Amino acid sequence: MPSTLPNEPDALAPDQALDRAVELETMMFDRRRSTPGAARSFVAGILAQWGWTERLDDIQLCISELATNALLHGAPAGGRILVRVELRATVLRIEVHDGGSGTPFKRESRDTADGGRGLHLVSTVSDHWGVTVRQGPGKCVWAAFHHDAAPTR
C-alpha cells in the first residue's frame, strides 16, 4: 500500500530506487515497550552524526509511530525489530522491519478511539510512505522525506 508516485525513484522500494545511499545505518531492537523511544533516539543520534536536522521532528514522529506499530502488530513475541536510516542524494528514508505477517493500512478511527491514527500521521508528515515485502518472513514499513541535497560534514 505504498504512497509512491510514478517517476519518483527516491520514494520507491530500496531495490527499485536509482540513487545509491550516501549514508546508511541500521540497528536491531528487542520487542519491548521501550523500543519506540529507543528507535527514536537511535535515529536522532544518527541524523546528528550526519549533521542532518532538516524535518527532525517529523522524522522522529514517523519512526516512533512505525516502531510502535511493529511492536504492537508486527513483531511476534520474542521477535526483534530492525530500524534502518538511509540518506540518498535527494531523500532521507526511514524503515522499520518486523517478522509479522500482517500488512499495515490507514484505517478510519473514531474521534473517541485511543489509537488507530499512526499511519495517518505518517502519511501527513512524510512525503511518501509504504509497505515492502521482504525476503523471508515479515515486512518493511517505510517513510521518505525529500530534500535538496545531502548535508556536508
Indicate the topology.
Blueprint: E1 23-30, H1 35-49, H2 56-74, E2 80-87, E3 91-98, H3 118-125, E4 128-133, E5 139-146
Helix pairs in contact: 1-2, 2-3
Keywords: ATP-binding, Kinase, Nucleotide-binding, Serine/threonine-protein kinase, Transferase
Protein name: ATP-binding protein
GO molecular function, one term: ATP binding
What would you say this structure looks like, in words?
This protein is α+β, with helices and mostly antiparallel strands. It has a single domain (21-108, 115-146), classed as 2-Layer Sandwich (Heat Shock Protein 90), CATH 3.30.565. It is 27% helix and 25% strand. The chain contains three helices and five strands; from the N terminus they run βααββαββ. The chain has helices spanning 35-49, 56-74, 118-125, and strands at 23-30, 80-87, 91-98, 128-133, 139-146. Strands 1-2-3-5-4 form a five-stranded antiparallel sheet, with helices on one face. It is globular and about 40 Å long. The protein starts with 22 loop residues before the first strand and ends in a 7-residue tail after the last strand. The model is unreliable at 1-16 (pLDDT under 50). Keywords: ATP-binding, Kinase, Nucleotide-binding, Serine/threonine-protein kinase, Transferase. It holds the Pfam family HATPase_c_2. This is ATP-binding protein.
CATH C-level name = Alpha Beta
Rg: 15 Å
Structure classification:
alpha+beta
CATH superfamily: Histidine kinase-like ATPase, C-terminal domain
Largest sheet: 5 strands, antiparallel
Adjacency order of strands in the biggest sheet: 1-2-3-5-4
Q: Provide the succession of SSEs.
A: EHHEEHEE
Helix % is: 25-40%
**Shape, principal axes of CA atoms:** globular
Number of helices: 3
Please tell me the total number of domains: 1
Distance between the termini: 36 Å
- In the CATH hierarchy, the architecture is 2-Layer Sandwich
Mean pLDDT level: 80
Task: Let me know the number of strands.
Answer: 5
Keywords: ATP-binding, Kinase, Nucleotide-binding, Serine/threonine-protein kinase, Transferase
Pfam families: HATPase_c_2
GO molecular function: ATP binding
Protein name: ATP-binding protein
